[in-house]
## 1
Amino acid sequence: MDSIIEFKNVSKTYDSGTHALNNASLEIEKGEFVFIVGASGAGKSTFLKLIMHEEVPSRGTIIVNGINVSKLRRSKVPYLRRNMGIVFQDFRLIDKMTVYDNVAFAMRAIGSSASAVRKRVPYILELVGLKHKANRRPSELSGGEQQRVSLARALVNNPAIIIADEPTGNIDPEMSFEIIELLSEINAQGTTILVVTHEHDLVRHFNKRVIEIEKGRVISDTKEDAAEMDLSFSTSELRFESDSPALDTPSVKEEVTE
């Protein structure tokens, strides 16, 4: 599969001298579901900000959806973000707007036609189970329902990537599982999902790829662990089957420049 996010020896040092990310290298493929875990201050938020181009790396290269965001001009950033849907811990809904208009706002912001909005928004609200509350204000909803509105807004422009930053931080445990289940269903349709969380019960329950960051370094990646186990098994077989075909060597992707 093709990579949709690639970090090549990426480091980020803030003006304060804080080393938020240190020589991180990883790839996330199109259609993956990945949990990003780690203690507070480990570098998880910086990792997301670099993907969204809210921050730029001090060293290294970041490729997102074929674009070298390390060198991306500021004028091009909105186009990069059109392929991303962001789900925030604190929802960031506009209370003077209805649920419908909060979701429609994301479409109108990129110039979608009125007819496209009328067709798409009810479909997305139905997908997250809130079509019947389209005319409510966010303040009239529970925390879990507000997070579903936030998710609907992230989904409505059909992004290639959804980034969820602690999406279950302000809702009860039962609703937390429902939100991740909904993200899993969206992922099954081909959307790449990144979820930053500190809730280890969720991570264990859903059995997805897990990247752990500690003090700015990627200290574990379940995908790499699985790959090492597979390689060990394959080479063990090769010792007994001399006529087995050689292992394919993956080609190195060319760096995409913008």
Note: The first strand starts at residue 3 and ends at 13.
## 2
Amino acid sequence: MRKIPKIFHYFRTFLFCSCATINSGAAIAEKGPVGPKVGEAQSTYILGMWSSQGEQNNIKKAAENGGITKVSQVEYIDKSIFLGLVIKHTTRVYGK
């Protein structure tokens, strides 16, 4: 039986692993408690250039999806899939 070099195992491990989160952040729009409603807008970027939803992933769209008229907090979540070639971007809005 032939031995497989260790470098191959390291490369294979690197190839089939991806980062769970590469960027997440939150912005507070007003002081006070987080609102009871939550709205989300999502899009997927391929190679960082093409988006599945165009420019529809923004705070306004997320607020519309959740029926929110007064935003209290905004959260951005980027999730890397398959070595960063595909990125799922989510904008989450909290408010009333």
Note: Residues 79 and 92 are 14 Å apart (CA to CA).
## 3
Amino acid sequence: MIMQPRFPSTRSSRSRPARLLAGACSLTAALALAGCNNFSGDEKSQAEVIGNFYRIHIKNNAPGLPSAEELREFQPLVSRALFTLLTQAEAADARYHALAGPQAPPIVEGDLFTSLYEGATSFSVDSCETGDDRGDERSNRQDGQRASCQVAFKYSKDGASESWNDKILLVREEQHWRVDDIEFIGNDQSSQREYLTDTLTDAIKETQ
């Protein structure tokens, strides 16, 4: 049986209305983080990791799961747990297409690392806060080993424009900050949350 993709290809950016971000410092993939926000210490390191991560992602402009080559680029920037999940999802997608055939849709469609199906064309790291910000069973580390950053994204292409915020969750591993998860906030401020790690876990389960 052909498995349905995690994100249907008919999904439109209009299904998630945009909230304009007044005063956000826009950062295109070609620009450096310096000068956008006056970060220092841990926050500067956190913003730099996120900046490097999304510059690679926007440069590659590849929807769905990252390829093996993209995973190698991301590896120094993500946590061991997230890298393992990404690798497992990529392997699950390969196994699925070996059985279903190349005409089958990918197990994840659309942009994997932002709320918008089409992805982002620019971004800015607005603020970072060190400390456990999850408040649930996801966190089992001491304060000071986790952080979260609010990132403003924008999609501008072919006359369309969308703006939204997502929250990037980081963990400190071997004295370096790494991207550990993403909370897809978009414009939905309800208590129902969606995380990158949940998306990957569900995609892997759907191939089993």
Note: The longest strand covers residues 160-173.
## 4
Amino acid sequence: MRDLLQNHCYQRYIKFYKLIGPANTTERTMEEAIIMEIKDNTFARQFETTVLEGLISVEYSFQEKKIFLTKINTPESFTDEEFINDLLKNIMNIAYERKLKVVPILPKIALFFRKNTIYRDLLPPGIKI
């Protein structure tokens, strides 16, 4: 049943959050909501979404309660970095829902964490970005 739930397409409102108060608080408020369809393809171990240019995927691997984000695959003609950031924000919200810690292996994803400090509480203990 769990695999069935993980494999279905995520088409729902995704909430973008921001921290309020001190940096150590976990209380969040809704900042913005968009609709983005994300498929968790557990067989290929990647999150997928489709754009006009083709398929965009973020590859991952699991170890215990951690998800390691290893690679972003985009079509050659795709250049919309804002969309990639929105996709990563959606993936971070999925990690929140599943109570996972996120380990950014790819430098582009580490840069995402530097720019979006609200997601730093998803990093496992000992990882500083």
Note: The longest helix spans residues 81-98.
